[in-house]
Design brief:
31% helix; disordered N terminus; 10 helices; 24% strand; 3-stranded mixed β-sheet; single chain; alpha/beta
Length: 439
């Protein structure tokens, strides 16, 4: 039936072995064809049919394949040794990067200049990043652009050496034990302001007044209270000693908790959550959690670490919002609301989030949703088909459709919670009720 996947026992292991054999085998498809055609030209057309032109062409083909094998083999030995040395020496500093921002990693490999007609390149297998090589004084220096947020303990590179004709190619892998962290990209949301919590104790009734406020409160007389604060008129009427007490100047401490829901297309949500932490939009005291992460963050560095680690959360580990809300609200009367950052694409997380936000009143704080997007692959009907056709979408962006975004907003809006839409490329945060006007 459609959608069914047949699982073959041992198939992943067979694929790994086939991949290793393919990396070690030097000839490409073009190389095999050139070798077969050259051999046929020499043995049949050259020797049997005595066609000297094809005999010469076959000889040239064999020479090119042979030169390619020799040059690629020598370069592979040289580059493998240099890559091993570089992988061992650069391990002291953790690698810190922000997604979509190019950085130099300090990793470099010497390439022999005395072997012509050879190309050397490498890519990152783990974590996901785009690598660019810069030639500098006999070295290939590595620059990268992280594709998605992550926290990792090692780097796995795949080196590929081949001739310029595409006839010979050899590949190998090298691991480097270097921890690092890719923070989510903030895009154009650097000045986003979602909501500021209220801090306590900073309001004064008069510039010359004391921080404790004016004497408007009353309480029973206690030993040591000044006699001048006794309310004698009240005593004459009720025969009770009451004294004036200072009214504390306090503002409500509206503590905000934030949570990141992971799922397909959750990179914009992680970036918006990072911005909310960076600009102080969560107030002075806050807690941030994420799907698949058992611990919570209360500082900026912890928050970035939680966001980076959440990229490796399994789909089965989602649905932690309900537990997070209950845990944060228990014994925390100052928690007034929860800010939940969600992807713009529906998934299994949507039903779980809707159920968690509909908890009994008083047991969970007021929930507000921020639906985060990098745009959509299509546009509202108000825009022309030509505009949609000319829109360019970056290859590494996991964009959904406008209908998917609308489905998420409608489902969250039915809970009665306030829903905002954060557009990371445009740097806009708008209420969901304005969505019909287009993003």
């Amino acid at each position: 039936m459609p959608g069914w996947k047949i699982k073959v026992p041992g198939l992943p292991r067979i694929r790994r072995i086939a991949r290793r054999v393919r990396d070690v085998f030097p000839l490409t498809t073009a190389g095999l064809f050139a070798l077969a055609a050259s051999t046929l030209a020499i043995l049949y057309y050259g020797r049997v049919r005595l066609d000297h032109l094809l005999l010469a062409v076959g000889g040239v083909g064999l020479v090119l394949v042979g030169i390619g094998i020799v040059c690629v083999g020598l370069t592979t030995l040289y580059v493998a040794r240099s890559a091993k040395r570089a992988s061992v020496t650069i391990t002291e500093d953790p690698l810190e990067a922000e997604c979509d921002v190019p950085i130099a990693t300090g990793f470099r490999v010497r390439r022999p200049a005395w072997l012509p007609l050879v190309n050397v390149r490498w890519t990152w297998l783990e974590p996901a990043a785009e690598v660019t090589l810069r030639r500098d004084r006999g070295y290939d220096r590595e620059e990268l652009v992280a594709k998605k947020r992550d926290r990792f303990a090692k780097i796995v590179r795949r080196f590929e050496i081949g001739d310029v004709f595409g006839l010979v190619r050899v590949a190998f892998r090298r691991e480097q034990l270097r921890p690092g962290r890719f923070a989510p990209s903030v895009g154009a949301l650097a000045k986003m302001h979602i909501a500021h919590g209220l801090s306590g104790g900073d309001a004064l009734a008069h510039p010359e007044g004391k921080p404790v406020g004016d004497y408007y409160e009353t309480r029973r007389y206690g030993a040591g209270d000044p006699i001048r604060f006794i309310l004698w008129k009240v005593f004459a009427r009720t025969r009770q000693l009451l004294v004036r007490a200072p009214e504390m100047s306090l503002s409500p401490d509206r503590r905000t908790i934030a949570y990141l829901v992971t799922g397909q297309g959750d990179e914009p949500a992680a970036g918006a959550a990072r911005v909310a932490v960076d600009v102080g939009a969560l107030g002075a005291a806050w807690v941030l959690g994420a799907d698949g992460i058992p611990d919570s963050a209360t500082s900026r560095d912890q928050a970035i670490d939680v966001l980076a680690r959440s990229a490796r959360a399994n789909p089965e580990e989602g649905g932690g919002l309900g537990k997070f809300l209950g845990r944060s609200a228990q014994g925390q009367g100052s928690v007034s609301r929860a800010l939940v950052f969600v992807p713009a694409r529906p998934g299994p997380w949507l039903d779980r989030v809707v159920r968690a936000s509909a908890g009994p009143p008083g047991e969970v704080p007021r929930v507000e949703f921020v639906v985060c997007t990098d745009g959509t692959t299509d546009s509202p009907s108000s825009r022309s088909a030509l505009t949609r056709a000319l829109a360019k979408v970056p290859d590494h962006k996991d964009l959904g459709t406008y209908e998917e975004l609308l489905a998420v907003v409608d489902a969250l809006g039915k809970t009665g919670a306030n829903v905002l839409i954060a557009d990371r490329p445009g740097g806009r945060v708008v209420p969901a009720r304005n969505m019909r006007g287009g993003l």
